[in-house]
């Protein structure tokens, strides 16, 4: 997420101790999570491209109080048109795969992974 935000001119940082995710100053732009179920480890992330941020006013995201939630669109400015969500998705996959040393990313439907959590799973081979 940090690399993708940088592609769009947004400076981000990892969270301070007790703050998971990716931050722009005091605004959380991305969340990360891990789940272990039936012997599988599931890793996930949520990168706020252009959500309706008003919904976050009614919750305490990730249990962190006194901080706001932001988005890539808010940070680049309303006058800047971002690429389609699919393009940013591909940028995320490419950056993550490169960071982890993987090539040949293959997308699979959840049903192929034995779970129906509503997310896309990606398999990759290490170079």
TrEMBL record:
It holds the Pfam family LplA-B_cat. InterPro entries: aa-tRNA-synth_II/BPL/LPL (IPR045864), BPL_LPL_catalytic (IPR004143). It comes from the Eukaryota. The keyword Thylakoid does not apply. Residues 1-104 form the BPL/LPL catalytic domain. SUPFAM superfamilies: Class II aaRS and biotin synthetases. One of its GO terms (biological process) is protein lipoylation. The keyword Transferase applies. GO terms for molecular function: lipoyl(octanoyl) transferase activity. Gene3D superfamilies: Bira Bifunctional Protein, Domain 2. Keywords: Transferase. This is Octanoyltransferase. It comes from Dichanthelium oligosanthes.
């Amino acid at each position: 997420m940090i690399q993708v935000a940088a592609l769009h001119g947004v400076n981000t940082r990892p969270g301070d101790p007790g703050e998971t995710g990716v931050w722009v100053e005091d605004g959380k732009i991305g969340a990360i999570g891990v789940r272990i179920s039936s012997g599988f480890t599931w890793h996930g992330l949520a990168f706020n491209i252009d959500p309706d941020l008003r919904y976050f006013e009614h919750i305490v995201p990730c249990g962190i109080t006194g901080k706001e939630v932001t988005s890539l669109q808010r940070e680049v400015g309303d006058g800047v048109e971002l690429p389609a969500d699919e393009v940013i998705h591909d940028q995320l996959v490419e950056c993550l795969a490169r960071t982890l040393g993987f090539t040949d990313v293959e997308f699979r439907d959840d049903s192929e992974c034995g779970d129906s959590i509503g997310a896309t799973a990606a398999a990759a081979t290490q170079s």
